[in-house]
Amino acid sequence: MKIVIVGGVAGGMSAATRLRRLDESAEIVVFERGPYVSFANCGLPYYVGGIIEDRESLLLQTPASLAARFRLDARVLQEVTRIDRESRTVEVTGVRDGVTHTEPYDVLILAAGATVTGTLPGNDIPVHTLRTIDDVDAITTVLDEAGDSARAVIMGAGFIGLEAVENLVARGLAVTLVQRGPRPLSPLDPEMAAPVIDALRDHGVDLRVHTTVTDIRAGMVHLDDGTAVAADLIIDARGVRPDSSLARDAGIAIGASGGIVVDEFQRTSDPSIYAVGDAVEKTDGIDHGATLVTMAGLANRHGRTAADAIAGVAEPSVPAFGASIVGLFGLTIAMIGWSETRLLAAGRPHRVIHTHPSSHAGYYPGAEQMSMKLLVDAETDAILGAQIVGGSGVDKRIDVIATAMAGGLTASQLSRLELAYAPQFGSAKDAVNMAGYVADNLATGATRSVQWHELDDAVSAGATLIDVRSAGEFDRGGIPGAINLPLDEIRERAAELPDAPIIVHCQVGQRGHTASRLLSQLGHDVRNLDGGYRTWLAGTASTSPKTGAHRTPPATPFA
């Protein structure tokens, strides 16, 4: 059997090496249009920033090493330009010499990945993406020539854009970050993006939201807000789209997203052709519809799935939740599943939970506060998504939640997970457990909550807002219109409260919950402001006309 693979790197090489482990007799040919068949594309920004010092460490395998270990025929600088499904051949053209030949196949795997979206006007300043070894070579050459006073404009504040920002700042560049949307990392909900905005501005990044590039000329990048920014380098990180043109031209089914349609074994509409990686539609783990998820982990796993199916040991792929994580100036931002913004747009009933736990026991030195958000199905208690922003500990919490989602655990069941504990690693009631406790309280009706963006309407409708923090905390900053009644005084002063709906809040939600339980048992109609003052401040700051003008409050070990 002869298997031809179009594209190397993650999905293609995962399929190729898995196939060899399963079938020593197969003839396996890999065509890669670039000069490198296997490289660490996720490490590219960190090579630009100097964190990864050895360029060679990015080159994971070469045609020679693949031939020696796996007996793979990997051919670089060879682009597959056409598929003839009837004859089961592909047309291959040499990138440098233009020579074309035909290659037969029994099974074809498409792993072409994604391509950049759109072009830029003008060509006066070097413009590069950050996707290949050639890209980083070109970027580092520009920076070396520009010297210490180099200036850069980054277009797009997604994962690659933020990694580019962090690493260019590390090199001493003045950086302007241009984002079409209202905030960096658009999948984040507004209140969760506030610490990201703070981190960017704390490190001198000129953040421009609701802004696009209109022209590039005379060493200046012109923006649609009427301003212009000087730059020696532009990095285009506006996003990608599926590189599915080869499949489309061959008559293979393409979905509404532009991705190649595949079944659970990565087969396309042609049973002899498989497809993996960023060019392929995935099944969404929340609504089971078709979606695009451009993550290296999925590309590798789906490469293995295709190889298993071809070798006759098929194991179906599972729906994708889109687990992701990125670092920015010591901040860790992680997410999975759907955001509140997306759930609202879809009209799906849900509950929202905000907590602000410490990374480990507060009494042990070095604890860092996290902001956690959990999205829960209002009817089934299923976990629909999560977002976590903070320092240490974010990565393992998002992975626990990802595992829970994959295993079908409900939000309330998070409270009953047995997680490893020692004070330097976590808390006896871990951050994930605590989110589960809140979910359980909401599911059982033990408490009711109101979200930061619902507060104004609730107060306008007649609710009284009670701040149950201490008088000192209240004096340092509070929500306009709130009445300060410290938690420890509520029992003695309950008669002062109006016979009307009450909303209580504290700093992060825990004391508010205690107050709501007390007042509800005293006969009051009471709700707790979810996530407390900290979440309200982050949300209102991130949606203010001058985004980021208000800062999220400093971490505090108290509720």
Description:
A five-stranded parallel beta sheet has the order 5-2-1-9-20. The chain has 559 residues and is an alpha/beta fold. Residues 554-559 have low confidence and may be disordered. The termini are far apart. Helix 1 (11-22) runs parallel beside helix 8 and helix 6 (190-202) crosses helix 16 (532-542). It contains 16 helices and 32 strands. A hairpin with a 5-residue loop joins strand 7 (89-94) and strand 8.
In terms of topology, how is this protein built?
Layout: E1 2-6, H1 11-22, E2 27-32, E3 38-39, H2 44-48, E4 59-61, H3 63-70, E5 73-76, E6 78-84, E7 89-94, E8 100-104, E9 107-110, E10 114-116, E11 127-128, H4 133-146, E12 151-155, H5 159-170, E13 174-178, H6 190-202, E14 206-208, E15 213-217, E16 220-223, E17 228-230, E18 233-236, E19 240-242, H7 245-249, E20 273-275, E21 282-283, E22 290-291, H8 296-311, E23 324-328, E24 331-337, H9 340-346, E25 350-355, E26 370-377, E27 383-390, H10 394-406, H11 431-444, E28 449-450, H12 455-460, E29 464-467, H13 471-476, E30 483-484, H14 490-493, E31 502-505, H15 510-521, E32 526-529, H16 532-542
Parallel strand pairs: 1-2, 1-9, 2-5, 9-20, 11-18, 12-13, 12-18, 13-14, 28-32, 29-30, 29-31, 31-32
Antiparallel strand pairs: 3-4, 6-7, 7-8, 10-19, 15-16, 16-17, 21-22, 23-24, 24-27, 25-26, 26-27
Helix pairs in contact: 1-8, 6-16
